[in-house]
Amino acid sequence: MSCSSPCAKPDGASRRGWLQAAAAAALALHLPPVRAQVAPAEVGSVWPQARLAGQGTLRVLGLRVYDARLWSPATLSADDWPQQPFALELRYARSLSGARIAQRSIDEMRRQVALDDARAAAWLALLTGSIPDVAEGDRLTGLHRPGAPARLFHNGRALAEWADAELVRRFFGIWLSPQTSDPSLRQALLGAGRESAPADDGRRS
Fold this sequence. Notes:
This protein has helices at 12-28, 41-44, 98-112, 117-130, 165-176, 183-192, and strands at residues 51-60, 63-72, 86-92, 139-144, 150-154, 157-162.
């Protein structure tokens, strides 16, 4: 192909810009499609419209303990979370015994507000009988259903139901109460979209 008049030659800057644009377009063609976050089956079967509200990571002494994700069929309020439906999913990055998780849960509940010894012992027995040992990659999912028993799942398999409303509120308050020992994780779960800062005191695992 010839030009009837002298063809304009692109200068160096224009040529570099064209090459960069072409390279970006070629790269875009090979990028995987963006996928929406999909709730676990045990959550979606109860709330098909559940969406990811927030997520974060708990670390103790720099070590990752678990990744947490909060799912909800509606927008969550940080103030009214005890009256709202949601699911808390924990994916563990290390092996822990169910007995240790149960005891740590009771310790964290005591941090929120005073808990008498008799009730603490009864709740510890219930949690110890409900929470299994976990290995790296295992998931524990708790469904918070106002007006109905909470449900606990291990890797999608139903384990237990908790009908004690006060136990349920205190348990999920470990992560969502303003008195939580990890406020940055609470903020991330309730929609801040930031991963929590490392917890350096070893209070939770």
